[in-house]
C-alpha cells in the first residue's frame, strides 16, 4: 500500500471516530440527560456534569485515535486527536443549527431552547466555534494522555478520577462529613454549589501521590513482609485482618443511613448470588426462577413471626431462620425433580415458568386466606438479640454481613469438596460425568436445594428489613439481576459475586439521584466493562486463561478441569 493510501486510511479512521463520539454526545443531549444534569456541578464554577458528558466525546475520540495511531509520531497523534475532537464538536454544533432553523420538538421532545443554550455555552450560534475549539482541545488532551509514560499517566488518571467521583457523589460525601472534625474537612473541600476548586486540587494531589507511593513501595513492603519470621508474619496478618474488620464494622455509622441501606441491599443480593452461583457457576444449571426461593424464605419468616391476622405461629426471627432455610432447601429439591432431564435453553424457560407460578399462586384467590394475596403479610417484627433490636439499616447491616460471611464460607468449602468437583464435572460435560460414575441426579438436586437455601436466608432478612412481604416484590427482574451480577463478577467466582453485587446493585442505587437516566449511565458502564473485561470483574484463573491467554482449560477435557480447583483472583 502506498504512503498516500495509508495516510488516507488513518484520516478516515479519524473521521469515523469523531463522528461516532459526536453522535454519542448528540444522543445524550436528545434523550434529555445533558439538560437534566445541567445544574449538577462537578467542580463549582468550573465544570458541570452536563459539560462533562459533552466534552467526553472529544476526550474519548482523542484517546481512541491515539491508541490506533500508536506507531506514528507524537505530533501526528495529537493532531489526529484534535481533529477527531473537533469533528465531534461540529456534530454537536450541527444539532444546535438544525434546532434553531427547524422545530424538532414534535419528534424529539428534549430538543429545547435551554438545551441549545447549554450546547452553545449560552452564546447562541456565536458559541459554536468555541464548542469546536473546546472539543478539539479535549481530543488533544485525550491523545496526549497515551503519550505520557505509564509512571506519569497512572497517577494523573487516578487523581482526575478521584476528583470526578467525589464531585459526582458530593451529596453523599457531604452527608458523611457533617459533624466533628469531618465538618472542617467538608468546609475545606466543598462549597454550597459543589466541590470547590481547591478541594478538587487537594483530592487530585493526594490521590496521585498515594498512587505514586503505592507503586513505588508496594514491592519492597511485600519483600519485607516475606522476610519476617513466621510468628511475626502471622501477627502482621492478624493485625491487618483486625484493622479491616474494624473498618467494616464502623462503616454504617460513618457513611450514614442511606449508604447503610444500599449496603444491606448489596448484602441481600450477594446472598442470592452465592446461591445461584452454585447452580449456574458450579453446576452449569441456568435458573431464571431463582426469585421463587427468595420469596419462599420471606413468606416463611412472615407467616411464622407476624403479629397480624395471618400468623401461623408467633416465633422469634432467630427460631424461624433455620425453618425458612430448610423450607427453601426442600422447595429447591422439589423444584429440581421435574426438570432433571432438561438442558440448555429449555431449562431456562422451565425455571422461568416455575418462578412465575410461585408469584401467581401467592396472588391467587385460592391462597389469599393463608398468604394474604396482593395485601401481603404485614406486622413482621424486628429481630431482637440480647436487648438489641435490629430496627434500622445500620443494625441490619451487621445481620447481613454475618449471614453473607457464613454463606460464603460454606460455598467455599462446597467448591473445594468432592461435591463441588462433581458439580464442575456436570457443568463441563454431563454425559461424561455420568459415564465416570457421578450420580448426576443427586448432584443436580443438591445444587438446586443448597442454592435455594441460600436464597431463603436472603428472603428471611428481606422480610424483617421491610416489616412486610408483598408478592409484587418478587418479580422475574430480581432473578435476572442476580444472574447478571454473577456474569459481571465472574462466573464461578465467589469474590466475583460480591464485586458484581456492588457494581450492579450498589452503583444504580448511588445513581438514583439522576432519576430515569441512572439506568442509561448504568447500561453504558456495563457495556464498557464487558468490552474490556468479558471474563468478569473478579474471574477465576480458568476463566481468565480461557478468554485472554487462548489456552484450553485442560488438555484432557472438562472432567479434568472439574477435578482440579483453580483459586479465585
Automatic annotation (TrEMBL):
Listed Pfam families: BPD_transp_2
Segments crossing the lipid bilayer: 18-36, 42-66, 78-101, 121-148, 155-175, 195-214, 235-253, 259-278, 285-305, 317-339, 346-364, 396-414, 445-470, 476-505, 517-534
CDD domains reported in the protein's UniProt record: TM_PBP1_LivM_like
Compartments, record wording: Cell membrane
Key word DNA repair present: no
Broad class of where this protein is predominantly found: membrane
InterPro entries: ABC_transp_permease, LivM-like
Signal peptide: none
Gene Ontology MF terms in the entry: branched-chain amino acid transmembrane transporter activity
Superkingdom field: Bacteria
Membrane disposition: Multi-pass membrane protein
Keywords carried by this UniProt record: Cell membrane, Membrane, Transmembrane, Transmembrane helix
One Gene Ontology cellular component annotation held by this UniProt entry: plasma membrane
Protein's name according to its UniProt entry: Branched-chain amino acid ABC transporter permease
Amino acid at each position: 500500500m502506498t504512503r498516500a493510501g495509508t495516510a488516507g486510511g488513518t484520516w478516515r479512521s479519524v473521521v469515523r471516530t469523531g463522528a461516532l463520539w459526536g453522535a454519542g454526545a448528540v444522543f445524550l443531549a436528545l434523550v434529555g440527560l445533558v439538560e437534566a444534569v445541567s445544574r449538577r456541578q462537578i467542580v463549582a464554577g468550573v465544570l458541570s456534569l452536563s459539560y462533562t458528558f459533552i466534552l467526553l466525546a472529544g476526550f474519548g475520540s482523542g484517546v481512541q485515535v491515539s491508541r490506533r495511531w500508536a506507531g506514528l509520531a507524537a505530533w501526528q497523534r495529537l493532531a489526529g486527536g484534535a481533529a477527531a475532537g473537533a469533528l465531534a464538536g461540529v456534530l454537536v454544533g450541527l444539532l444546535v443549527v438544525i434546532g434553531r432553523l427547524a422545530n424538532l420538538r414534535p419528534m424529539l421532545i428534549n430538543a429545547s431552547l435551554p438545551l441549545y443554550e447549554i450546547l452553545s455555552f449560552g452564546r447562541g450560534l456565536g458559541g459554536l466555534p468555541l464548542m469546536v475549539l473546546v472539543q478539539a482541545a479535549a481530543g488533544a488532551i485525550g491523545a496526549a494522555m497515551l503519550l505520557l509514560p505509564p509512571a506519569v499517566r497512572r497517577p494523573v488518571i487516578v487523581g482526575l478520577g478521584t476528583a470526578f467521583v467525589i464531585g459526582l457523589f458530593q451529596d453523599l460525601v457531604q452527608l458523611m462529613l457533617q459533624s466533628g472534625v469531618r465538618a472542617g474537612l467538608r468546609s475545606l473541600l466543598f462549597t454550597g454549589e459543589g466541590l470547590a476548586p481547591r478541594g478538587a486540587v487537594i483530592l487530585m494531589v493526594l490521590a496521585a501521590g498515594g498512587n505514586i507511593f503505592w507503586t513505588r513501595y508496594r514491592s519492597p513492603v511485600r519483600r519485607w513482609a516475606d522476610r519476617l519470621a513466621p510468628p511475626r508474619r502471622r501477627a502482621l496478618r492478624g493485625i491487618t485482618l483486625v484493622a479491616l474488620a474494624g473498618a467494616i464494622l464502623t462503616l454504617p455509622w460513618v457513611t450514614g443511613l442511606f449508604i447503610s441501606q444500599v449496603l444491606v441491599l448489596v448484602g441481600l443480593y450477594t446472598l442470592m448470588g452465592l446461591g445461584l452461583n452454585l447452580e449456574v457457576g458450579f453446576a452449569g444449571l441456568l435458573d431464571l426462577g431463582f426469585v421463587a426461593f427468595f420469596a419462599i424464605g420471606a413468606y416463611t419468616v412472615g407467616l411464622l413471626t407476624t403479629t397480624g391476622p395471618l400468623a401461623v405461629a408467633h416465633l422469634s426471627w432467630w427460631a424461624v431462620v433455620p425453618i425458612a432455610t430448610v423450607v427453601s432447601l426442600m422447595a429447591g429439591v422439589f423444584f429440581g425433580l421435574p426438570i432433571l432431564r432438561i438442558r440448555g435453553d429449555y431449562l431456562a424457560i422451565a425455571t422461568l415458568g416455575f418462578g412465575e407460578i410461585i408469584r401467581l399462586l401467592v396472588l391467587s384467590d385460592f391462597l389469599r386466606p393463608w398468604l394474604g394475596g396482593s395485601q401481603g403479610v404485614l406486622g413482621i417484627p424486628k429481630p431482637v438479640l440480647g436487648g438489641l433490636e435490629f430496627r434500622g439499616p445500620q443494625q441490619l447491616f451487621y445481620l447481613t454481613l454475618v449471614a453473607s460471611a457464613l454463606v460464603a464460607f460454606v460455598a467455599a468449602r462446597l467448591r473445594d469438596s468432592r461435591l463441588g468437583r462433581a458439580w464442575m464435572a456436570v457443568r463441563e460435560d454431563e454425559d461424561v460425568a455420568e459415564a465416570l460414575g457421578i450420580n448426576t441426579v443427586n448432584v443436580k438436586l443438591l445444587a438446586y436445594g443448597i442454592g435455594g437455601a441460600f436464597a431463603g436466608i436472603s428472603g428471611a432478612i428481606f422480610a424483617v428489613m421491610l416489616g412486610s412481604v408483598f408478592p409484587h416484590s418478587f418479580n422475574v427482574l430480581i432473578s435476572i439481576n442476580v444472574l447478571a451480577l454473577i456474569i459481571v463478577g465472574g462466573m464461578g467466582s465467589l469474590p466475583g459475586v460480591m464485586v458484581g453485587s456492588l457494581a450492579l446493585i450498589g452503583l444504580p442505587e448511588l445513581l438514583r439521584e439522576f432519576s430515569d437516566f441512572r439506568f442509561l449511565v448504568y447500561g453504558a458502564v456495563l457495556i464498557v466493562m464487558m468490552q474490556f473485561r468479558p471474563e468478569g470483574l473478579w474471574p477465576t484463573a480458568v476463566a481468565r486463561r480461557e478468554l485472554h491467554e487462548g489456552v484450553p482449560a485442560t488438555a484432557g477435557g472438562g472432567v479434568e478441569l472439574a477435578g482440579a480447583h483453580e483459586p479465585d483472583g
